[in-house]
Amino acid sequence: MRKKNRKIRITLDLTPQAYDRLERLERNLDVDSKADVLRQALQLLEFFADHTRNGATFTVKSRNSEPQTIVLLASRAMASD
Question: Is the dihedral angle over the CA atoms 22, 43, 74, 49 positive or is it negative?
């Protein structure tokens, strides 16, 4: 069993554009590290994937627009978990 505080180090290859996005998110979210951005992204992806798998849809409405349904892409592997 893994201890809760134990961490596993990974290596990640990103395109320069993806790295720029990661840095921009780090600044905009005001988090301590790029790892924090990735942890938050994983939480969001898991939330959306779980709910989408159960039939939920998501809608975005900005101040000056009509609601728009968000279409999320999930792999077959996630859908069959």
Answer: negative
For residue range 13-69, list pLDDT tens digits in order: 999 999 999 999 999 999 999 999 999 999 999 998 888 888 888 999 988 889 998
Give the separation between CA 77 and CA 81, rounded to whole angstroms. 6
> Into how many domains does the chain fold?
1
Task: Determine the Cα–Cα distance for residues 57 and 70; give it in Å rounded to an integer.
Answer: 7
Q: Is residue 6 part of a domain?
A: no
Contact assessment for residue 40 and residue 28, using Cβ atoms and an 8 Å cutoff: no
β-sheet bridge partners, residue 58? 70
